[in-house]
């Protein structure tokens, strides 16, 4: 197991390095002078030249790249163009807010998704299966921002029972959590259904039934335990995407997280801030993938020795 | 679609049915019976495509015609879906929105498919290209589609062309992964070796012997990626980073409805409903196509159309 962990941890380093490299060089493509963007249109040519030297922009790109890597290792992500504060500081609280929302959403998506998928699989071909299947199809088809607007119209504007914006109290969590989880919920439900249908025909499930184990235990214990293995991967993957993909939900509900910050940064073309957010997204995604891989290796010994 | 015919007309059942009823087991009716949902999807998609293509002939009003005397009207015999805050006819704007979505999704998925399939096939065929292309692909896949699209827009700026480029780039990794896998799975087959032995050039082998084999899965993949592209395009416009306001586009219409939904909820409900029905149509049609054309793909793509380019939140 230790060797497997070591191998997987080492394998994620090159991906991270590639992401950093890509994020650095992609933004070299932007036309215009970053120093000028930093200072605004009123700055004199002398000041611009001064800032160019301070930021190291007068050096060759490769030198800039090495400097960028060295600063990253020290946790220095540069300064935001719009607020002039260090990017690392700007990211702190939005990151926590996004993680909180994503955690709430993935828990809801997993619990409800597995439940819906199990109901569908157990009633294969009957009414409840059709209901669950249609619900799941609607779930992956509904535009997240539209769902958010509809909920807001119903619960905030008309019924006045839920707050529409911000993240101050636990009541603020309801609508964003539902909006962010719907796609993943539907996805996990479909996955659980197909996985459970495969497992339920296996010999050991038939054996369990034959020896008189109650049906709810056959499904809940013998079948579901094995059927959930592939679902774990999907849950992990969806969580990784949620951290970066909460853009729309956060925008609709004015949730002060990374996604909302990214939209603002793109609107203002605040490159250092965009780069910082992208790196954080990628790092979170790689980390979540690593944890999922390790968990999978822990649960299924066959994978460890491949 | 026709490939699903044999399944239902299997020997014994067909023999027992009275002759008059098996006389014309036409492929369409069989498809409809077997894949009822997929048939609904096909109908929605057809409606969407027809509305998009024939938009200028279908609309009752000019979609940009401002009429200050009839703003925010609910659905009525004159304006079947009502009017927006500037008195523009919503039905006409929905139809032109379909045209916009159709154009953006076709152009971007098409460009993404050509680029991705080319790169993926090369990566699968030439061992020296495999590493670099597939590692870069991993980097792209580490970001949700909407984040990649936002990044591209932040570099290129707003506007229709840039929106199409951004969405095309989001599609590329999916095609690279698929084409790479498909190429690897056939490149050691006997018929490819035979072509090599008979002196065929790499270009001929790739175009004549490897690519045709990938066609069916790529068509299925395309039908599964189009709804994601439509959704991403609407999402970017909703965020104010795609098509700009006066243009009739569903995401932009929803953005515009924010201020008015309190007074006239229909301006918010209708564009979202149109978007959902089209995405739903493509999703169930894609499911049906996948089952009919290539059941193996179900396992490869994780059993869901959403596994591809859904905006995810």
Can you tell me about this structure?
The complex is a heterodimer of chains A (306) and B (313). The N and C termini of chain A lie close together (12 Å). Chain A is 77% helix and 0% strand. Chain A has a single domain, classed as MetI-like fold. In chain A, helix 10 (215-245) packs antiparallel against helix 13. Chain A has helices spanning 2-26, 34-39, 45-55, 61-73, 87-122, 127-141, 144-158, 174-199, 203-210, 215-245, 247-252, 258-268, 271-299, 301-304. Chain B has helices spanning 5-8, 11-16, 19-22, 27-34, 36-53, 55-58, 90-125, 127-141, 145-156, 160-186, 190-197, 202-238, 250-257, 266-293, 296-300. The longest helix of chain B has 37 residues, at 202-238. Chain B is elongated. The relative contact order of chain B is 0.14. Classes of the chains: A mainly alpha (306), B mainly alpha (313). Chains A and B meet through helix 1, helix 6, helix 7, helix 8 and helix 10 of A and helix 8, helix 9, helix 12, helix 13 and helix 14 of B.
Rg calculated over all Cα atoms of chain B: 23 Å
Secondary structure tally: strands of chain B: 0
Please count the beta strands of chain A (DSSP E, at least 2 residues each).
0
Helical fraction of chain A equals: over 70%
Mean pLDDT of chain B: 79
The CATH superfamily of chain A is known as MetI-like
Structural class of chain B: mainly alpha
What is the top-level CATH class of chain A?
Mainly Alpha
Shape of chain A: flat
Contiguous low-pLDDT stretches of chain B (5 residues minimum) are: 1-23, 297-313
